[in-house]
Amino acid sequence: MSAPVSAVRFGGVAAASFTVVFDTHVVAEAPPGAVGPVDVTVVTPGGTSAPAGYTRVGLPAV
User: Pseudo-torsion of CA 33, 23, 50, 35, nearest 10°?
Assistant: First the structure.
């Protein structure tokens, strides 16, 4: 089993909440932010992961 996750960050801002589903699968609620790409990292006692890309999208037009 991997180290416990202490935080998930979207561009340096902590996720509102997250759940570790498997050692290789984390579900996180993205915090509010500007539309566009942002790096996501996972923090454990062993260090911070390499960034993974995530793209925020705008609200749908009604």
Answer: -20
Dump pLDDT digits (tens) for 8-36.
Answer: 999 999 998 999 998 889 999 999 999 99
pTM of the model: 0.83
pLDDT band for position 61 (cuts 50, 70, 90): confident
Task: Give the model's pLDDT for residue 23.
Answer: 83
Strands (E), 1-62: 7-10, 13-14, 17-22, 25-29, 36-44, 47-48, 52-56
- Sign, CA dihedral 49-18-12-5, equals negative
Q: How many CB atoms lie within 10 A of CB 25?
A: 8
**Extents of the domains making up the chain:** 7-55
